[in-house]
Amino acid sequence: MTTAAETTPSPSPPGLLQAHVLAMPIAQTLGLRFTRVAPGRVDLEMPVQDSLCFRPGQLQATAVFALADFAAVAAAGSTLPAGWVNSTVDAQVKLLAPARGSCLRAQGRVVHAGRTLTVCAADVYAVADSGEETLCATLLATAHNVDGSAARPPRA
After folding, report:
1. What are the tens digits of pLDDT across the range 89-144?
2. pLDDT tens digits for 57-67?
3. Between β-strands 103-113 and 117-127, what pairing exists: parallel, antiparallel or unpaired?
4. Among 59, 74, 61, 62, which residue's Cα sits nearest to residue 24?
5. Does pTM surpass 0.85?
6. CB 107 within 8 A of CB 133
7. Of 59, 79, 64, nearest to 17 (Cα)?
8. CB 123 within 8 A of CB 135
């Protein structure tokens, strides 16, 4: 007899997800920092850096997109069983307001989790020095889920 615990794999530990994301060079360049990891939910922060701005204090859209993508796809990754990984296969961002302030805060969430594909989303807020938040972008993405423990052997 099979129990529910045997048929439902447990998700990867949150620390493993964070380590995987923060090991990526672009995540380091952006200065990403996790502020919350829960099943189906991830919050990230990114400081506003002059090197990523196209005019003083206003982030380029590429950096905003990257933050939103990391938050959404990491939220999708938070629901995967241990040993599984994911990557973005499709994403669309809508820029709603200038991304300026002291940092950006992205709230990623799972919209629909499937075995092979997970639809996920993120809202990005520009945070002023005063703490006031302004919604500056929203993203809808699809992540492809892969069993990393069943990786193919290298070709000869």
Report:
1. 999 999 999 999 999 999 999 999 999 999 999 999 999 999 999 999 999 999 99
2. 999 999 999 99
3. antiparallel
4. 74
5. yes
6. no
7. 79
8. yes
- CB atoms under 10 Å from CB of 46, counted, come to 25
Beta bridge partners of 139: 93, 122
Total residues found in the chain within this entry: 156
Residue type, 96: L
**Do residues 118 and 79 lie in contact, with contact meaning Cβ atoms separated by under 8 Å?**
yes
Structure tokens of 74?
Answer: 């990491």
Residue 63 backbone zone (phi > 0: left; psi -120 to 50: alpha; other: beta): alpha
Tokens 């590429």, residue? 62
Tell how strand 33-38 and strand 41-47 pair up: antiparallel
> pLDDT digits over 38-53, tens only?
999 999 999 999 999 9
Backbone torsions φ then ψ of 60, nearest 5 degrees: -70, 150
Q: What is the pLDDT of residue 154?
A: 61
Predicted local confidence at residue 149, as pLDDT: 80
Beta strand pairing call for 84-95 and 133-147? antiparallel
- Sequence-ordered strand ranges (E) for 39-83: 41-47, 53-55, 58-59
